[in-house]
Design brief:
alpha+beta, seven-stranded mixed sheet, five-stranded antiparallel sheet, 18 helices, 21 strands, globular
C-alpha cells in the first residue's frame, strides 16, 4: 500500500526559471581567460560562414537558420522581410495552443515564452524588433542518426552552448511492433520500437491499430514526445498505477553519444547507460534515436468526471472538506489501479477524469463509493458523469487526447507506480514507489511580474509543498528550476551513481539542461547569459 505522500513540483505557467543567480566574479574571471566558457556568436571562436556551410552539406542541406515563428508579425528579422498579415493573425489567435506550433513546423518552440526571454512574440506593431531571445541560432532538422552525429561533433569541435545549435528529431517516426521480444533480459512478451519523433497520441493510435490491439504506458498529454525527455525523466501516465512508470517498461535504447558515436544500451550492452536513461533526466547522457518498450493487451476501461463548484456550494469551509475527503482517498484510488487528473482553483474542484483501466463502470463506482458516501455524509452536492469504453484507447481519445488541457492553481495527478512495481532497479527516484499524489503549484506572471514570480515560486510555494510531503520528492520533467537541493529532490540516493555515469558518457558537458545531473559544475553568467564552467 502506498504512503499518502507526494511527489511535488512548482511551475510558472508563463515560463520557467531560466537563469540561476548570476556570479559576476565568475564572469569577470572568464572574460579574461575565455577558456572556461562556451563559444558565442561574435567571438573569435564562433564558426565561420564556411564552417556552417560545410556542416549544412554534411547533413544533406537540413541545417536551418532559426527564424522565430512570431517573425510573421514583424517587418523584418535579422534584415530579411518576414511580415505576413494572414499568418500573423493565425499566430496571434493560436499562439498559446500546444497544437499550433507543430503544425507550423516550428522546430525550436518553447512552450513558455518567458523561458526564451519573450523571443519574438506576436505583436500588432509590425515595426517592432523581432528578437531571437534565448532561442537556438541554428537547427538541424535531422533525418538520420548520421545527421545527429554530425551536429554533436560540430558542437564539440567549436565548444558551442546548448543555445547555439539545436537538433530536431521529429522526423524519426518509425514504429515497429513485435509479438515476442527476443532481446536481453528475462522479458519475452510483446514490445514496440519507436523513433524519437513519436508523440503520445501517435503511439497510442499505432498500438490500437495492431491485431490484437495493444497498449503502452504513455503520458496523458497528446503532444508529449514519447522516446525523449518524457521517458528519460521517468514518465507517468493513465496506466502507471496498473503497470508502473514509462521508464520501467524500457527494454533498449539506440542513442548518439556526446562523442557522436552510435551506441545501443540495454540490460547486456552498456548497462550503466541503460540504467541512467530510465529516469536519470532529459538532455543529459545521450540523444535517443529509438526506444523499445513493453506493450500490454488492450483492456476495457471506465471513467468518471466529477465537479464540485459554486453551483453546488458557496460555503468555502464545506468545499475544503470535500477537497480534503477526495484527496485523503489517494491511497485507495491507486491501490485499485486508478489514475486521477484534477484541477483545483478557488471554489472549484474539477476531476477529469478518474480513469479505471481494466474495469467497467460498476467496478469503478464500487471503488469510488467511499468518496460518494463521504460527500453525502458531509451534505455536499456534486455532479458526476460516468462512461465506459471497450478499450482504454477509446477512453483516451474521448477524454484525455485533446491537447489543450486546462490549468488550475493546483494541478493534480493521483498516480501510484509502486502499486504495480514496488521495487524496480532504474534511475527513477524511489519516492515514486511510495507516492500516491503528484501535485503542481502554478503561477501566471506577466513579463513585468517575472522576477517577483520566480522568487515567490522558489522561496514560498516550493518550500510549502516540500513541507507538505517530507517523505516525497520532486519530478525533473515538471519542476521549479529554482528547486533547492534538486539532486536529492529529483533522484534521492540514485544521484551519486548518476553523476558517475554522466562523467563517463559526457564528461565535457556537451549536453546541457538546467538542474540536471552534473550541471552543478556549470553556471549561466552575465546578461545575455553565457554558460561557463565553475
Amino acid at each position: 500500500m502506498a504512503y499518502l505522500s507526494a511527489l511535488l513540483f512548482a511551475l510558472l505557467i508563463a515560463g520557467v526559471n531560466s537563469l540561476p543567480p548570476q556570479d559576476q566574479s565568475l564572469q569577470n574571471r572568464q572574460t579574461t581567460s575565455g577558456s572556461k566558457c562556451k563559444c558565442y556568436e561574435g567571438e573569435s571562436c564562433w564558426p565561420s560562414a564556411t564552417a556552417w556551410n560545410t556542416l549544412n552539406a554534411t547533413v544533406d542541406g537540413y541545417l536551418q537558420k532559426v527564424v522565430p515563428a512570431g517573425a510573421v508579425c514583424y517587418n523584418t528579422f535579422e534584415g530579411k522581410n518576414t511580415y505576413n498579415s494572414s499568418a500573423c493573425s493565425i499566430a496571434t489567435a493560436n499562439w498559446n495552443q500546444q497544437s499550433f506550433h507543430p503544425k507550423q513546423e516550428d522546430p525550436v518552440y518553447a512552450m513558455n515564452p518567458l523561458y526564451t526571454n519573450g523571443a519574438c512574440l506576436p505583436t500588432t506593431n509590425k515595426a517592432a524588433t523581432c528578437s531571437p531571445g534565448f532561442l537556438a541560432d541554428y537547427v538541424i532538422m535531422a533525418k538520420t542518426k548520421q545527421h545527429i552525429a554530425a551536429g554533436v561533433k560540430f558542437a564539440r569541435e567549436y565548444n558551442l552552448p546548448y543555445g547555439a545549435l539545436a537538433i530536431n528529431t521529429h522526423s524519426f517516426q518509425d514504429i515497429k511492433f513485435t509479438k515476442q521480444y527476443a532481446g536481453p533480459g528475462a522479458y519475452t512478451g510483446s514490445a514496440v520500437t519507436v523513433g524519437a519523433g513519436i508523440q503520445s497520441r501517435e503511439m497510442y493510435t499505432a498500438a490500437f491499430n495492431q491485431n490484437p490491439k495493444v497498449n503502452i504506458v504513455g503520458g496523458e498529454c497528446a503532444t508529449v514526445g514519447f522516446a525523449g525527455g518524457y521517458i528519460q525523466g521517468g514518465g507517468h501516465g493513465p496506466l502507471t498505477s496498473l503497470y508502473g512508470m514509462a521508464a520501467d517498461q524500457a527494454l533498449e535504447f539506440e542513442v548518439v553519444t556526446a562523442k557522436g558515436e552510435f551506441v545501443t544500451a540495454n540490460a547486456d550492452i552498456n548497462p550503466d547507460l541503460f540504467w541512467a536513461l530510465r529516469g536519470g533526466g532529459p538532455a543529459t547522457f545521450a540523444i535517443v534515436t529509438s526506444l523499445t518498450v513493453k506493450t500490454f493487451p488492450e483492456v476495457p476501461s471506465a471513467m468518471v468526471i466529477l465537479n464540485i463548484n459554486s453551483t453546488h456550494t458557496t460555503n468555502t469551509a464545506l468545499w475544503w472538506q470535500a477537497v480534503t475527503l477526495f484527496h485523503s482517498l489517494s491511497n485507495h484510488y491507486v491501490d485499485n489501479d486508478l489514475f486521477v487528473y484534477y484541477e483545483l482553483t478557488p471554489g472549484t474542484l474539477h476531476i477529469q477524469p478518474f480513469v479505471g483501466p481494466n474495469m467497467n463502470s460498476a467496478k469503478l463506482a464500487q471503488i469510488l463509493k467511499p468518496l460518494y458516501d463521504g460527500l453525502t455524509k458531509l451534505g455536499i452536492r456534486y455532479t458526476a458523469v460516468v462512461k465506459e469504453y471497450p478499450t482504454f484507447f477509446q477512453l483516451y481519445m474521448d477524454i484525455l487526447s485533446p491537447p489543450e488541457l486546462g490549468f488550475g492553481v493546483i494541478i493534480g495527478h493521483i498516480v501510484g507506480p509502486g502499486n504495480a512495481l514496488p521495487v524496480f532497479d532504474n534511475a527513477v527516484h524511489s519516492g515514486w514507489r511510495n507516492a500516491s499524489s503528484f501535485s503542481i503549484a502554478s503561477l501566471f506572471p506577466t513579463q513585468q511580474q517575472w522576477a517577483t514570480a520566480k522568487k515567490v515560486m522558489t522561496e514560498k510555494l516550493t518550500p510549502a509543498m516540500t513541507k507538505a510531503s517530507p517523505r516525497g520528492g520532486a519530478y525533473v520533467n515538471e519542476c521549479d528550476l529554482g528547486q533547492p537541493d534538486w539532486q536529492n529532490q529529483f533522484w534521492g540516493t540514485n544521484y551519486p551513481k548518476l553523476l558517475e555515469i554522466r562523467k563517463k558518457w559526457d564528461g565535457d558537458g556537451i549536453f546541457y539542461a538546467q538542474i540536471t545531473v552534473g550541471t552543478e559544475d556549470w553556471a549561466e553568467v552575465g546578461n545575455p547569459p553565457k554558460l561557463c564552467k565553475k
